[in-house]
Amino acid sequence: MLQCIFLLSDSGEVMLEKQLTGHRVDRSICAWYWDHAISQGDQLQPVIASPTHYLFQIVREGITFLACSQVEMPPLMGIEFLCRVADVLADYLGGLNEDQIKDNFVIVYELLDEMIDNGFPLTTEPNILREMIAAPNIVSKMLSVVTGNSSNVNETLPAATALCVPWRTSDPKYANNEVYVDLVEEMDAIINRDGTLVKCEIYGEVQVNSHLSGLPDLTLSFANPSILDDVRFHPCVRYRPWESHQILSFVPPDGQFRLMSYRVKKLKSIPLYLKPQLTSDAGTCRLSLLVGMRNDPGKTIDSIDVQFQLPPCISNADLSSNCGTVNILSNKTCSWIIGRIPKDKAPSLSGTLVLESGLQRLHVFPTFQLRFRIMGIALSGLQIDKLDLKNLPHRPYKGFRALTRAGHYEVRA
Amino acid sequence: MAPPAQSQRSPSPSQPSGKGEVSDLKSQLRQLAGSRAPGVDDSKRDLFKKVISYMTVGIDVSSVFGEMVMCSATSDIVLKKMCYLYVGNYAKVNPDLALLTINFLQRDCKDEDPMIRGLALRSLCSLRVANLVEYLVGPLGSSLKDSNSYVRMVAVIGVLKLYHISAATCIDADFPAMLKHLLLNDPDTQVIANCLATLQEIWTLEASISEEASREREALISKPIIYYFLNRMKEFSEWAQSLVLELVAKYVPSDSNEIFDIMNLLEDRLQHANGAVVLATIKLFLQLTLSMTDVHQQVYERIKAPLLTLVSSGSPEQSFAVLSHLHLLVMRAPILFSSDYKHFYCQYNEPFYVKKLKLEMLTAVANESNTYEIVTELCEYAANVDIPMARESIRAVGKIALQQYDVNAIVDRLLQFLEMEKDYVTAETLVLVKDLLRKYPQWSQDCIAVVGNISSNNVQEPKAKAALIWMLGEYSQDMHDAPYILESLIENWEDEHSSEVRLHLLTAVMKCFFKRPPETQKALGDALAAGLADFHQDVHDRALLYYRLLQYNVTVAERVVNPPKQAVSVFADTQSSEIKDRIFDEFNSLSVVYQKPSYMFTDKEHRGPFEFSDELGNLSIGVDAADTVVPAQQVDANDKDLLLSTSEKEDGRALSSNGTAYSAPLYDAPASVPASQIQSDLVNLTSGLPGHMPAASLAIDDLLGLGLSVTAAPAPAPSPPSLSLNPKAVLDPGTFQQKWRQLPISLTQEFSVSPQGIAALISPQALLRHMQGDSVHCIASGGQSPNFKFFFFAQKAEESSNFLVECIINTSTAKAHVKIKADDQSMSQTFSTLFQSALSKFGVQ
């Protein structure tokens, strides 16, 4: 079980220390960790064996969450818990950064106190935590000024723990009942230099933002659930209806949550193509890139950009494009920001790369990473059929959105 | 009147401050302590915040302890929390002052607000000061009966904290029994989960000294309790679910129907959003079906999709942990994943450690149908910017080549690598081509043609250079200018820093000399001279050996240095199958991430809660338990299954090949060789060579580990050398433990124990006295009926050569399962016979 949690700033300073068991973990472990992290660079593994402890670490927004253990334990329990801590803190503090944590360290202590005791994770459910410890938001600040009650701890204990739906706030009341369902998909693809699709897969999430009074019962169904390859559910989803009819039946938590995540594999069509051409001769290399629409998704593709790492043997590069901007950073990372594809021309980038002296031809080739975003469509083809709500006094407002963006979308040269 | 969270920024805690500020704080706190003025809470809060922020950055503020306690009389819960935090941090170093806090904490434990009761109790238990435990018992006892579940939840963990401060107090107050009652009756699942965690820890630690505790621990994994948990599974929080699943994994269902019931009940856990729950479920499924080959295979099919989704859904850190587990499964049953190879393709910006795992999986799943695509993919990586990755992928291509029968295409690819003219690619490829030639000598023509064109000046890495030189020597008759290349290398002897290269150079020039004497004679002379003058001992010795050999007789020298070689059929694996099995038993633990069984990297004291604490050998319980619990099912295992652990598989084969009931060998010999032949080989090896064939040394180690089944040995064993044991042997437990870890298992056997013996084995002591009569001494024993476990040792009479034995006797099956380790491996067979005869006499006379 976890023995101690440290929060480190991006300079390695210990911002917070929470001892969980009787075996005190000395702070010196952080110094060891920091040296190790520097020596390993980006090869640093999430689970590290230090001379005295086993360390779990995750880094979020420059802040390192470090947990120590001396006993054998499920590694995912440690990592997953740290991820939840990071999520909850970001949620409470409205983002994660050094100042936020230092200003609110009392809240962080309070939260950790409720989330884990003696090394056993207790509850990481944001709704329950919110009922025990109020978030430091503007409203509570105003309220405390007006009412003179300055405590950020709620007077009553959450009743939810005793209910059979622990994820839900006991009895929320809203004037406007509304629920939003978003399909957010990320497309991972590998495309070879000749344009063949090596692998194409979509990882998607159904995100729900629910502001509904009472104890509503929701049913969400898809028009084509059969395309889903594998699914994972929020604990609120009932398993049987999915098993028999592929229907998501659930009592939602209050606020934003991830209802379901899924994977769709073996997709055949990709929205964008990128054609790289590299010809090298006598110490120089001509590079040209063409980007264009492969299969029109029917909605605008925006935020397009291309990133690639120039091979280390290139001493000089001169690149220009007919639209968008091209930047070459000092670490030889090159980024070409296109935005939207203009109507009148196909975006292209061309230029020459000068090789280091002594090299005639280029032997290593960069991989181009493409990023884009398409609003209004889920590229996997998944469609929401309908959303039914029961147990509600008024007709709520229902909203649906879809979004696809590039995950690991890469083209090899 | 602002809440502390966003109050006027206190001076940044990161600025170090001296003693002055602390004493300043002290006086300010003192002023506030008695004040009842309105708004005093806010000033207190600012001060408290300052104190805590100093504490957080590591400044010692223990000197204000008294003042903090004085100020703690407040109804403000945030102030209380900060105070609890402070007190918890400094009480251990200030036990006397901590006494001051007891009073107000005890009062808070009776507060009407359950939150305050809970928090106060938590802080009270977190003081961890031994001389204050007497104040803990009362509040804990009443809190366990509190009407509010939050307080009970805190109290349960409080009991564990108390146990760690003073075990005796905890037991005397009868807390475990109260927890057991809560465990079975509390309406709140979080309380139940905490009870479970606490009881597991307490009873495991108590089990070594109290029989009752170990009975209670066993009772936790009894059918009614397990079913009680399973039925409420969905009510538990996700973390509690992982805990319960861990517990269920230790339960042994009585029949297959029960197994299916459990799996049906838990199948939806595979789709849980929390990765820890999913992995715990997978572990449970794998454990449950270990003895049911077909179902086990179906389980693999079922868990594939959830695992792959987990890999792609979480943060990179989660992905890595899941991938490590996937890696383990893929390595165990590559065939089942062979159609999913595309999932193991590496993305450009993944961290290297992830790519490395993926490459290993790609290598493992390669088979006839997908090799072409996998190798094409790997070649893409080889041309990539990322150099370590390029190296790894070339190695992967080589590994695939070595495990395939149809290597045409791969050899072409490898040779193309050599034409890429990148030094690191060339270097890696050369090493691979060398290995490939050792396995497939028929490819020598094609390879030699390309290798011959490589200028040795372009190869700098010692391993690659050594490989090139080996090929030059081995194929000198086919490579036109081999002698001249070797000659030029020898001219630069002084510049060659790697002794490995120099050793290879000596051998290569010898081989070349045997084939093309006139052209090589001069180079050989130079090499021997340079070798003899070398400062490196090995190089010098080898040169001298060659020189003397040549002086004695050239044909003999050739027979020694360049005998006809057999193609290597299998390259030894770096990890033994036993270790792999053990890692598999520890699925869903750190072992998988480190790719080492836990006994290799954790100290005994920090081992997981369910370890037998009286155990000496630290060897996995999982294997032993499986062996003793399901012997009947093991017999069903047959050769075809690829999922069962190797040891079980070998058991099955041995049973079917010689048709006797007693045999438990562990060997890694090629399956095509009849067992009897191996056994006779073994006899030759054990009696003759101590094992000096470099390429096969690992295999020989394993051959030595092959247990000749004593009762039914088909091979004519040579009359064993006599062995007498020292009746007064001594060995202290530390040494035993160390030796047990160091030595490989030289024999694993199972034989039956006479019914009289079983009858006499009412307690372990009876057997200990008996074995002592045969000069076999016991160092530790334990266990409950029907499983008894013993660790014995014995010493040879004349010299201090030790034999170590782990013996598990199952009284219900009347079988003894024995593992023998010995300093002198060659004697272990003899010792085993002696041990067995001693054991068989037990209870007879």
From TrEMBL, chain A:
Cellular location(s): Endomembrane system
Gene3D superfamilies: 3.30.450.60, Mu homology domain, subdomain B (2.60.40.1170)
Limits of the MHD domain: 176-412
Keywords of the record: Membrane, Protein transport, Transport
A single Gene Ontology CC term: endomembrane system
GO biological process, one term: vesicle-mediated transport
One Pfam family in the UniProt entry: Adap_comp_sub
Top-level taxon in the UniProt lineage: Eukaryota
Assigned protein family: Belongs to the adaptor complexes medium subunit family.
Protein's UniProt name: AP-3 complex subunit mu isoform X1
Originating species: Rhodamnia argentea
Gene field: LOC115752820
From TrEMBL, chain B:
Compartments (UniProt record): Endomembrane system
Residue intervals of the Beta-adaptin appendage C-terminal subdomain domain: 723-840
Bias (Low complexity) ranges: 1-17
Predominant location category: membrane
Superkingdom to which the source organism belongs: Eukaryota
GO biological process: intracellular protein transport; vesicle-mediated transport
Similarity-based family: Belongs to the adaptor complexes large subunit family.
Biological role stated in the UniProt entry: Subunit of clathrin-associated adaptor protein complex that plays a role in protein sorting in the late-Golgi/trans-Golgi network (TGN) and/or endosomes. The AP complexes mediate both the recruitment of clathrin to membranes and the recognition of sorting signals within the cytosolic tails of transmembrane cargo molecules.
The protein, known as: Beta-adaptin-like protein
